[in-house]
Amino acid sequence: MPRRRLGLILAAGGIIACASAPPAPSPAVTREPDSSVAPAIRDVPANSMPGTTTPPRDPNAPRHFFEVEMTATATTVVKPVYPESLRQSRVRGFIAVEFVVDTLGAVEPGGFTLLEVVPKSAESAFMEAVRAALLASRYQPAQFAGRKVRQRVPQRFEFNP
Predict the structure, then answer these.
(1) pLDDT at 48 over 60
(2) What is the pLDDT of residue 25?
């Protein structure tokens, strides 16, 4: 099989262009199709290949923002209280979480996922403050196909003394 040559143009910031040169000419060889060989993968529909079918979506599963027609919108926002022990130590940082807003507009207590926290030592204090604030907040629920649906909402909170 002929090889393709790739040409890369590099700049200080990384690759800025990539070009593919055509393969070198090779002697012409023709073959008749062999019917004993299985069809090429490209000839098989993806959904008929084992392990490639997508299971049906659970209609009650929380959706991401790109899976809804109208995203959940905060109607009552409660700001997290800066943990006093971290304020006295003048610890700065942030925490990024993902939480689930239910069909009534409340944040689900079991729907929290920690995405990132800086500094790591402040994780439990920041998470406790954010969790309390979000559970007290209220949202207009997300909508899909004319009905209210649960939505995963990512959010970042900054803590500065």
Answers:
(1) no
(2) 55
